[in-house]
Design a protein that fits this description.
Chain A: Belongs to the UQCR10/QCR9 family. The complex is a heterodimer. By secondary structure, chain A is mainly alpha-helical. Chain A has 3 helices and no strands. The longest helix of chain A has 30 residues. Classes of the chains: A mainly alpha, B mainly alpha.
């Protein structure tokens, strides 16, 4: 525990620049992860209901019409 | 966790003292009350019982005067209350079903649109929800819209674009009234929000036309009987019949299926933001629950020392002031 604390202190909090960089980078990463994860959960709950699930039929159909 | 254990360890000392104190206190109270009990009579209780009865009586009287429902209209004028249906798209974790929206839009276009406008829906909002860009563009181009005035100030006609709004069936309200026996078919854009009962009301109305009005019902000339419509006399006749439209996905087009699809479509038209709103709501709940837990922890952490401290008061040792005086010597 003590080793971990001192490691974190030495690598992150010791220099202000490093700490700010860590804060902004982790905020960006967590935002990305949260949005991606919640979108994935939402899409799995609503599978087959949203346009992105349905549109395959109609886009496919339009291309077939062009071929004919 | 540290704060909690500190709290625990501090407790026994104080608790023992408190118990001792409360025990003596309760004993003295019980002894005094037992002596009073012997002397009590109905006179002692008359005031509280009377006051309670008066309070209950006043509240009951007020509720009788002002608390009852006051109906300005008879039940027939209110209309039959619609049944609650388990709408899948109305659940907090469900989006609209795009396939159902597509079917509902087909019903709107083939049936409702002959009388009802949908003036707040542009073609662009159909894209990515109900149809592809190409389909929406083709649909828009079927109608003509006014151009901006040209160099001579003339307004010409141009085919519709994605940014145009769905055209209404009539030029204006007066034309609509003239074509419909004086009744104005309302715009359906916000109809789900605009009517008490929302989806349930619209579905019940569309499917609720009886074959013939019940005995004793007065149906004015030119109106139709529908128990769900306030006043029961509605200018719109029953429009949905089995197999009225032919769905492209080969869903059987029963009356209730069409009514359900068009209701869901109208719900989308009234609340196109609902899907995003629900998803954002869940995200907000997720983030704020973490923040709430965090703030509770911080509060407990900061208060741990305050809650577990013990304040001790040591009174100064009092000594009689006379003892500080130099003692007289008894050496005389």
């Amino acid at each position: 525990m003590a080793g971990l604390t001192s490691f974190v202190y030495n690598t992150v909090f010791r220099s202000n620049v490093t700490m700010l960089t860590t804060v902004f980078a982790s905020a960006f990463a967590m935002q990305l992860a949260f949005d991606t994860g919640s979108d994935r959960i939402w899409d799995s709950i609503n599978r087959g209901r949203q346009w992105k699930d349905v549109k395959v039929r109609y886009v496919q159909k339009a291309e077939d019409d062009d071929d004919e | 966790m540290l704060a909690r254990s500190a709290l625990r360890s501090a407790r026994p000392v104080g608790a023992a003292a408190r118990n001792a104190a409360s025990k003596t206190a309760s004993r003295s109270v019980s002894t005094s009350s037992s002596t009073a009990e012997g002397a009590s009579s109905w006179k002692t209780n008359a005031l509280p019982v009377g006051a309670t009865a008066f309070a209950i009586g006043t509240v009951a009287w007020y509720a009788y005067i002002a608390g009852r429902d006051v109906d300005a209209m008879t039940p027939a004028e209110e209309g039959l209350h619609p049944t609650q249906y388990p709408w899948e798209h109305a659940k907090w974790n469900k989006t609209f079903d795009s396939q159902a929206l597509r079917r509902g839009f087909q019903v709107y276009r083939e049936v409702c649109a002959s009388c009802h406008s949908l003036s707040r829906i542009p073609y662009r909002s159909l894209v990515g929800k109900i149809m592809t860009v190409d389909e929406a563009k083709a649909l828009a181009e079927e109608n003509e819209y006014d151009t901006e005035p040209n160099d001579e100030g003339e307004i010409e006609k141009r085919p519709g674009k994605l940014s145009d709004y769905l055209p209404g069936p009539y030029k204006n309200d007066e034309a609509a009234r003239a074509a419909n026996n004086g009744a104005l078919p309302p715009d359906l854009s916000l109809m789900v929000k605009a009517r008490h009962g929302g989806c349930n009301y619209i579905f019940s109305l569309l499917t609720g036309y009886p074959d013939e009005p019940p005995a004793g019902a007065v149906v004015p000339e030119g109106l139709n009987f529908n128990p769900y419509f306030p006043g029961t006399g509605i200018a719109m006749a029953r429009v949905l019949y089995d197999d009225l439209v032919e769905y492209e996905d080969e869903t059987p087009a029963t009356t209730s299926q069409m009514a359900k699809d068009v209701t869901e479509f109208l719900n989308w038209a009234a609340e196109p933001e609902a899907d995003d709103r629900k998803k954002m709501g869940w995200k907000v709940l997720a983030v704020t629950s973490v923040l709430t837990a965090l703030s509770i922890w911080v509060k407990r952490y900061k208060w741990a020392s305050v809650k577990s401290r013990k304040i001790v008061y040591n009174p100064p040792i009092k000594s009689p002031i006379l003892s500080k005086l130099p003692k007289p010597t008894n050496k005389s």
